[in-house]
Amino acid sequence: MLSEKEKSRLESMYVYERKLKEKGYKYIAGIDEAGRGPLAGPVVAACCIIRDDFFIEGVNDSKKLTPLKRKKIYNEVLKQPSIIYSVSIVDAETIDEINILQATLLAMKQSFFNMSVRPDHTLIDGIHKPKEIEDATLLVKGDSLSISIALASIIAKQTRDDIMEKYHQKYPEYSFAKHKGYGTKQHRDSIFRYGPCCIHRKSFEPIKSLIG
Length: 212
Description:
The protein is an alpha/beta fold. It is built from 9 helices and 5 strands; from the N terminus they run ααββαβααββαααα.
């Protein structure tokens, strides 16, 4: 049972969706990404539509959630027919080929066009959007302002974390399960000790200098 405070907080995250519905939009999507900053692994984007007003306790910007809470919400999302979503994964090799911004936009575009229901309007976190998504609103810190973007951020982040945990099994020397590819001291020390592996981003420092 949601407390009144939590219900009020979640209601405030529906403001953009409700305003768009009042304008006649039916399928309003949120898009967010995870993994722009790491030294290893893919960038992942998710597109999410909530068909009805739907409350899951604790939904917020994925970065503000503990791993346990994020996983719990993600598992709840998987069970809900009211939520439609798709995920796109762009690997490290592609990131090196086209740069991280273009790879992020590619992941966003693919997640949008992979939806089983085409969004009427899309709320996108940040200041950049794929040019192919025409009817869209950019929201800085949108994962804290829009319920659709917040859920997309959770889906993208959890999907990426799961991928990095699998890579940890293949490359345990890098401890990907702990830092998920981000540039922690432990991760950087591992790169200097063992060299980069196939999922490291060769266009990112310090890897670029190591192999240059």
